């Protein structure tokens, strides 16, 4: 869909041109409980370091074929997104805000990041998804001569992402998160987006493997089916903008209590003043 071009060698999600977005989606929902997805991709373009973007995303979501701002896919998605983010928006965002805010963890770009959405959570593009990040790692993936792969494994509710980008045919750990609950019957997809900054975002192959886990049958039978994506021990927060600032409700109550407090003080003041006036009058006459 979108600006994606299908050739015999690859699906070019976006060409190395501004303001493009494209995607490919599976037609069939995935009914596997445990699976592995191996994605062979290539990101390359004319842009010099830090002047290219924005990256591509691999999806396992309830929704499919919905254009939007999250690497060419819709925001508030339901399911899993694994992003290969090639442009550090947060750096520029903090510079522009003139904030002397130092992020807790330094992140080096290009960045591979995983996010789980439950349909109400927004991806914060300005901050490269930091508020909703489950895990991430650095991956120097641009303009390489050798093949580059990202590997997503979802087995026994454990999400593991590995990368093979050094041309050594070795998987390198990127992130590993237990307790990830993803329903069956979602769709696989890949999408990419360019803005002012550009790159060719190519998908060469996506290979899905069913994984069979032994000795887990009894345990699985006791677990009820997952209907909404979630991650154990992590609250998938709804992102509302400035995390240092006050929310509108907080501002409302602050103003309300300030007003009530001021009126209370004025009333007390008036009572004390009239009482003092009276006693003074009594003293003089
Ligand atoms: Ca970014």
Order of helices and strands: EEEEEEEHEEEEEEEEHEH
Please count the beta strands (DSSP E, at least 2 residues each): 16
The termini sit apart by 94 Å
Question: For the record, what CATH class of the largest domain applies?
Answer: Mainly Beta
Q: Name the helicity range.
A: 10-25%
Q: What is the beta-strand fraction? A: 25-35%
Could you name the ranges where pLDDT drops below 50 across 5 or more consecutive residues?
A: 239-244
User: How does the major sheet shape up?
Assistant: 7 strands, antiparallel
Instruction: Give the class from helix and strand content and strand pairing.
Output: alpha+beta
Globular, elongated, flat, extended or rod-shaped: what is the shape? elongated
Give the overall pLDDT as a whole number: 90
Please list the strands of the largest sheet in the order they lie side by side.
1-2-15-4-10-11-12
Give me the CATH architecture of the largest domain, please. Answer: Sandwich
Computed over alpha carbons, the radius of gyration is: 26 Å
Number of helices: 3
| Quaternary structure | single chain
- CATH fold node name of the largest domain: Jelly Rolls
Taken together, the total number of domains comes to 2
Bound molecules: calcium ion
